[in-house]
Amino acid sequence: MVLAKDLMTMQNPTWCPGCGDFVILMSVRQAIEKLGWKQEDTVVVSGIGCGSKLPRFVKVYGFEGLHGRALPAATAIKLANKALNVIVVTGDGDGLGIGGNHFIHTMRRNLNITHIIEDNRVYGLTKGQYSPTSPDGFKSSTSLSGALETPLSPITTAIAGGATFVARTSMINPSKLTDILIKAMTHKGYAVIDVLQLCPSYNKTFDMNWYKERLVDLPENYDSTNKVSAFEKSIEVTEKVNEGIFYIEERPTYEDKVTQMQKEPLVKQNIENIKMDKFYNKFK
Ligand code: SF4
Ligand code: MG
User: What is the CATH number of the domain that holds 78?
Assistant: First the structure.
């Protein structure tokens, strides 16, 4: 069994001191250890951003794609080899801005993949522009008088869009983050976890104290299988920020529904006897 420490690579992260990405990286490694996932069966996929460098630091397969395109790459990987455990990491800007369209359609498909949104409410790598999750009035390098746009809630969007596991947590409490990651990674279907994260370099507003004062667990009697109450909870206006699993649904995955994928993974299937002549001849 692989231990979290064995999942370190030769490279050291170059993130700023105090960056939340360090905690997310540690939790990903710990979740892989606790689940007993094999390195050769696991792949971490990302796009572009500070946190999207994460595949370099986990000793499993990795793929860094184009900005906003982590989900299509992960989709292709899962379609080719459904036996792989696929973890996707995106930032809030990368995953919800540039990749927003892919987010919606991945929810509809319900592939069995885990999507971690490293949500620091700002574009960190490109020096602090406001992002889709920056609140109205947020001052940044591109919104000196405050952002004018209404923020997008990853939780509300994911519940409405059809994700079958929707959770919010933070990197303030690493053991809670690891627990939720494990639940998401064992969920069969598209699991979205909005991980609230510190960016001490470009987001001085949402710092450790801000989160410590506001984060609260969802109520004990909360029913995460009720879509209507999950949606209501996600749009509730309150001083507090709810943490926990907002919504879980059992629904067949995309892989379950594609006839050719119901047997072994496509990469293992024998393609020698597949004749394409009829198809090619059509276009001669
Ligand atoms: Fe982390 Fe922000 Fe620095 Fe990027 S800019 S490495 S998100 S602290
Ligand atoms: Mg960001």
Answer: 3.40.50.970
